[in-house]
Design a protein that fits this description.
The protein is mainly beta and 693 residues long. Helix content is 6%, strand content 45%.
C-alpha cells in the first residue's frame, strides 16, 4: 500500500512538473505615483537614481531626501531586490560626512543623480554623481566618483571635479575651432538674445570653462556592448548635453567627448540601446516643475544625434506624466524589455517625491512610453512586437481631421469611416482603431455609415462630431434621389482615443432633413454651436446652418438657422443639363477659425465642375450670424478639399485636407497637410507640408 501511494505521488509530481502546472508566479502590480514601501514599510528614498543588475539581484541607488530640504543630510541610498517589486533597504552606501565641515561631501552638500556601474576587469563597483559644495548653490557643477568592492557598499569617496579640463570636443572641425577662437565672453553679457544663443551653439561656454573643465549636473552612466563606459551629463549651465568617455577602470575621463543639442536646454538624460540604436530621453529645464520629455537617437554613441518628439502617450504626457526622467532599465535576458524610470518631485516635502516606472514599447522602431495606472512585469512575458506604423501618404482617408492633443502629446486623426490613427510626428501613424460606439436601438441602426468625423476637446472632455447614415431607413425621394436617414451627431469620451459613446439626446437635428459634416464652434456669445450642411439632395441648393448646443454638448437647443447657401459662392460652378453655368449646389466640410485681427472665417468645400475645390468666407459681423462674404477664388489647389486647421506641438499652423482623384473609376482620397497663416486679416494657404522631410 505504501509503495502504491509512493508510486502515485511520483506520477503526480512528474505530471505536475511536465505539464506546466507549477504554481503560477504572482505578479505584483507597479503603480506609479503611489507610496512604494520597502521591507520596513517605509517609502523608498532613492530619488534621481538608477538600477544596477548584478548576479541575480537588482540594486537601486538614489538620493536620500529629507522632509524639509533636498540637500544631502544622509547620503546615497541603496535598495536591493530579486524581482523589482519587493525592496530591501541596504542603508546609506555613501553617507555624508558629519564630522568634517571641510569634506566635499559634508552634510548639507548636494549629492544628485547617483549611478553605479560594474567594471568586470577590476571587479569594482563605480559610482558617479552630481556634486554641489555646501553653501555654494549650484555653482560647483562637479562630478564626483566613489568605488566599492560590493554593490551594497560601503563606497569609498575618491574625488570630485569638472570634466576634461583643457580639452575640446574631439569632433570639432578646424573651421569650428577657428570660429571658437574668436568667441569673446565679454561681448555676450546679455543672455537669451539670438546672438547669445548662436554663440552658445558655437561653444561660448565651452571656452569659458575650458581651463577648469566642463560643468556637469544631471547625469547618467552607460556601459556599451564592448565594455566601454560613458558619462552623459547636462553641461554649459544646463544648456548643452555632453557625452564623455570614461577610462578603462571607469574612475576618470579620457578627454574624449562630444556636445549634443547645443543651447537646447536639456537635462535628466536616460540612455539605452536597442538593435544597434542608442536612444536618449531627456527633460527640459524648468526647475522642480515637470515639462515635456524630449528624445534623441543615434547609430553611434558619438552621434550625430537626431531629436524626436516626446515619446510619452496618455494623460499628462505633455508633462511626462508629472515626472522627470532619471533612468531606463533593460531587464536582463530579455530582448525588448525596457523600463522608463522618472521622479515626481515634491519640493515642499522632498522625501515625499514619488516614482514613475512604465514599460517602453516600440512602434515603427521608435520608443513609446504609455501611461498605465497599474501594470506588472508580466508585460514582458508576452511576445513583444514592434507595432508597424503607416506613413501619412499611405493612408486612404476622406475628410481627415487632426486633433493635436497636448495633454497626451499625441496627434489623433480621424475622418470618414469612423476609424482613428495616432502619431507622435504626423509622419508615421499607428492604427486604425475603432473608437465610435453607437446605440443599435437608436435611429442610426445596427451598422451606420460614418462620414467626416471630427475630434474636439472641450471642458475636459473629448467630442466626436460625425455624420451617421442608416441605409435601412429612407426619409424622402426627390427626383431620382432616394434620401437615406442621415444626420450630424455628437459622441463623447474622457480620452482622445475613445471609446466615444452616445450622450443624452438621441437626435440633434430634424429627422426629415439629411444633414452632414457637423463641426464645432463657440461663438462670441459664449454658447457652443454645431455648424453643419443641409444636404443638396433634398433642397437642390445645399446650405450651411448652425444650431445651438447644450453646455455639455449632450443635445441641441431650438432650431437650425441658415448661414448661407451653395448658390452664394462666386467660385463654385456646374453645368446644368441645358448647358447653362451656375454655382454648384453642394456644400461640404465647413470649418471655422478666427484670424489674428479677429475676423471669423469659414473654410468649406464644393465643386468647380468635376473638380473638388475649397473656398473661404468671412463673417461681416464677426459672429456665426454673418452676413458671410465669400472670397472670389478658391484657396487650395484643384482636387484638395474638406479641410480643417490645427496647430502642431511646435507651433506651426497646418490645414489638413484630402486629395481627390479618380483612379480607373475608383475615387482615391489621401490626407495631405498645407502650411497656413492667418495671423493677419485673411487665411493664406502656403506650400504643402510633408511630415518627416
Amino acid at each position: 500500500m505504501k509503495k502504491t501511494a509512493l508510486f502515485l505521488w511520483v506520477i503526480c509530481f512528474a505530471l505536475w512538473m511536465g505539464t506546466g502546472c507549477m504554481p503560477t508566479q504572482e505578479w505584483k502590480p507597479i503603480k506609479s505615483g503611489e507610496i512604494w514601501p520597502d521591507n520596513q514599510g517605509v517609502h523608498i528614498n532613492a530619488h534621481g537614481g538608477g538600477i544596477l543588475y548584478h548576479n541575480g539581484s537588482y540594486y537601486w541607488y538614489g538620493e536620500n531626501k529629507s522632509d524639509s530640504t533636498s540637500s544631502a543630510m544622509v547620503g546615497i541610498m541603496c535598495y536591493s531586490s530579486k524581482d523589482l517589486v519587493k525592496w530591501k533597504n541596504e542603508g546609506a552606501v555613501l553617507p555624508v560626512v558629519t564630522n568634517d565641515s571641510l569634506s566635499e561631501i559634508t552634510q548639507g552638500c548636494v549629492m544628485e543623480r547617483p549611478k553605479v556601474i560594474y567594471n568586470a576587469k577590476t571587479g569594482k563597483f563605480v559610482m558617479w554623481f552630481h556634486l554641489e559644495l555646501k553653501g555654494k548653490g549650484y555653482a560647483a557643477a562637479r562630478s564626483a566618483v566613489a568605488v566599492s568592492d560590493s554593490p551594497t557598499g560601503p563606497f569609498t569617496y575618491l574625488r570630485s571635479g569638472r570634466i576634461n579640463p583643457g580639452k575640446l570636443p574631439f569632433d570639432m572641425t578646424a573651421q569650428q575651432k577657428a570660429i571658437f577662437d574668436t568667441l569673446d565672453l565679454a561681448k555676450y553679457k546679455a543672455w537669451w538674445t539670438p546672438a547669445w544663443y548662436d554663440a552658445i551653439n558655437k561653444g561660448l561656454f565651452v571656452k569659458r570653462d575650458l581651463e577648469g573643465g566642463q560643468m556637469a549636473r544631471d547625469m547618467q552612466l552607460f556601459v556599451d556592448d564592448d565594455g566601454k563606459a560613458y558619462h552623459i551629463y547636462s553641461s554649459e549651465d544646463n544648456l548643452t548635453l555632453q557625452i564623455a568617455e570614461l577610462s578603462d577602470d571607469f574612475l576618470s575621463h579620457t578627454g574624449k567627448y562630444i556636445r549634443i543639442a547645443p543651447a537646447g536646454h536639456n537635462e535628466a538624460p536616460a540612455i539605452f540601446k536597442r538593435n544597434g540604436v542608442y536612444w536618449m530621453i531627456t527633460s527640459g529645464c524648468t526647475g522642480w516643475a515637470p515639462n515635456e520629455a524630449r528624445m534623441f537617437s543615434s547609430r553611434s554613441i558619438w552621434g550625430p544625434w537626431k531629436q524626436y518628439p516626446n515619446p510619452c502617450m496618455g494623460e499628462n504626457a505633455y508633462l511626462t506624466f508629472g515626472g522627470q526622467s532619471t533612468n531606463v532599465l533593460k531587464l536582463p535576458g530579455k530582448e525588448d524589455a525596457f523600463i522608463f524610470m522618472a521622479d515626481i518631485w515634491r519640493p515642499n516635502k522632498p522625501s515625499d517625491a514619488r516614482y514613475i516606472w512604465l514599460p517602453i514599447t516600440f512602434r515603427g522602431g521608435k520608443p513609446v512610453i504609455e501611461w498605465k495606472d497599474s501594470w506588472t512585469l508580466e508585460e514582458f512575458e508576452k511576445e513583444q512586437s514592434d507595432e508597424p506604423l503607416i506613413s501619412t501618404d499611405s493612408i486612404r482617408l476622406s475628410d481627415p481631421c487632426v486633433l493635436a492633443d497636448r495633454r497626451t502629446a499625441t496627434y489623433y486623426m480621424t475622418g470618414t469611416g469612423g476609424m482613428l490613427w495616432k502619431s507622435k510626428d504626423l509622419h508615421l501613424w499607428s492604427g486604425p482603431y475603432k473608437v465610435a460606439q453607437t446605440d443599435s436601438t437608436s435611429w442610426m441602426g445596427k451598422k451606420p455609415m460614418i462620414w467626416a468625423a471630427e475630434l474636439h476637446a472641450y471642458h475636459d472632455k473629448y467630442y466626436y462630431f460625425a455624420t451617421f447614415t442608416n441605409q435601412e431607413v429612407k426619409i424622402d425621394t426627390v427626383g431620382e434621389n432616394v434620401i437615406e436617414r442621415r444626420a450630424s451627431h455628437v459622441l463623447v469620451s474622457d480620452s482622445p482615443d475613445g471609446p466615444y459613446v452616445p450622450m443624452q439626446d438621441s437626435i440633434y437635428l430634424p429627422a426629415d432633413k439629411p444633414t452632414l459634416d457637423g463641426t464645432f464652434w463657440v461663438d462670441k456669445d459664449g454658447k457652443p454651436y454645431m455648424v453643419y450642411c443641409y444636404e443638396w439632395l433634398q433642397n437642390n441648393n445645399g446650405t450651411i446652418e448652425k444650431i445651438e448646443l447644450k453646455e455639455d454638448l449632450s443635445g441641441s437647443i431650438g432650431e437650425g438657422k441658415l448661414l448661407f447657401r451653395a448658390s452664394d459662392s462666386p467660385w463654385s460652378r456646374e453645368t446644368t443639363p441645358d448647358g447653362s453655368i451656375k454655382p454648384n449646389k453642394v456644400t461640404d466640410g465647413p470649418y471655422l477659425f478666427r484670424t489674428g485681427t479677429g475676423r471669423l472665417g469659414m473654410i468649406w468645400t464644393s465643386w468647380v465642375e468635376n473638380v473638388y475645390t475649397q473656398g473661404v468666407a468671412y463673417s461681416k459681423s464677426g459672429t456665426l450670424d454673418g452676413p458671410w462674404i465669400h472670397e472670389k477664388e478658391p484657396i487650395t489647389p484643384p482636387n484638395f478639399g474638406h479641410g480643417m486647421l490645427f496647430r502642431t506641438f511646435e507651433g506651426k499652423w497646418l490645414m489638413s485636407v484630402h486629395s481627390h482623384y479618380n483612379d480607373r473609376g475608383h475615387y482615391v482620397r489621401v490626407p495631405h497637410f498645407f502650411e497656413v497663416d492667418f495671423s493677419g486679416d485673411k487665411l493664406v494657404v502656403g506650400k504643402e507640408y510633408i511630415p518627416g522631410m
